[in-house]
Amino acid sequence: QSVLTQPPSASGTPGQRVTISCSGSSSNIGANTVNWYQQVPGTAPKLLIYSNNQRPSGVPDRLSGSKSGTSASLAISGLQSEDEADYYCAAGDDSLNGVVFGGGTKLTVL
Amino acid sequence: QVQLVQSGAEVKEPGASVKVSCKASGYGFIGYYMYWVRQAPGQGLEWMGWINPNSGATNYAQRFQGRVTMTRDTSISTAYMELTRLRSDDTAVYYCARCIVGVKAYYMDVWGKGTTVTVS
């Protein structure tokens, strides 16, 4: 059972906009910034969004993140086949002095 | 370029120990925390703990307390994660990841490719 809650799956057609939600509590998302990771099966996770809404260099601006209270979301616009992957949210947790993850959302591009 | 190179796959019997290494290059090793994350087959990501390579200070997730030890050798820019008393449910891919730690911000920007540990 993951500390952060994500929907197990999401889907969309090419060109569409999809959002993935992430819900936490006052000790994690409510207290710290949220990060998003993309994982193509068989490979290591890749940082997509950090500090709620910042993109590392090389991440396209059709990906965006937001946070409000104890929830966050990742939005992907102009969906492409290459976006098909697993997406994880994460945040620091003050009660653990560590990091907690969501259970992951499998994104399918139809 | 910045990279983390992990040691190779391991197969261990139940009750044994495993030690995974993670060699950093392309950046100042002691300037960034190293986090360890594992992923069981078909499952999500699970944080195991961190080490501050500068001081050697560590913090472990409660479920691994007493079984995990994280160390580092600054002379060769390498971090280690040792897990003892292995069980079948420790079968997983183990990742090391460089972590940026700021005010209210903790994110892993560079990851190793992972080390598969099979307990059987």
Walk me through the structure.
- The complex is a heterodimer of chains A (110) and B (120).
- Chain A has 110 residues and is mainly beta.
- Chain A has strands at 9-12, 18-23, 34-39, 46-49, 63-68, 71-76, 85-93, 98-101, 105-109.
- In chain A, the strands form 2 sheets. In chain A, strands 1, 3, 4, 7, 8 and 9 form a 6-stranded mixed beta sheet that branches.
- Chain A is globular.
- Chain A starts with 8 loop residues before the first strand and ends with a strand.
- With 120 residues, chain B is mainly beta.
- Chain B contains no helices and 11 strands.
- The radius of gyration of chain B is 14 Å and the shape is globular.
- The model of chain B has no long low-confidence stretch (mean pLDDT 96).
- Chains A and B meet through strand 3, strand 7 and strand 8 of A and strand 5, strand 9 and strand 10 of B.
Please supply descriptive tags for the structure shown above.
heterodimer, A: 110 residues, mainly beta, six-stranded mixed sheet, three-stranded antiparallel sheet, 9 strands, 0% helix, globular, B: 120 residues, seven-stranded mixed sheet, four-stranded antiparallel sheet, 56% strand
Describe the secondary-structure layout:
The complex is a heterodimer of chains A (110) and B (120).
Chain A: E1 9-12, E2 18-23, E3 34-39, E4 46-49, E5 63-68, E6 71-76, E7 85-93, E8 98-101, E9 105-109
Parallel strand pairs in A: 1-9
Antiparallel strand pairs in A: 2-6, 3-4, 3-7, 5-6, 7-8, 7-9
Chain B: E1 3-6, E2 10-12, E3 18-25, E4 33-39, E5 45-51, E6 58-60, E7 68-73, E8 78-83, E9 92-102, E10 105-111, E11 115-119
Parallel strand pairs in B: 2-11
Antiparallel strand pairs in B: 1-3, 3-8, 4-5, 4-9, 5-6, 7-8, 9-10, 9-11
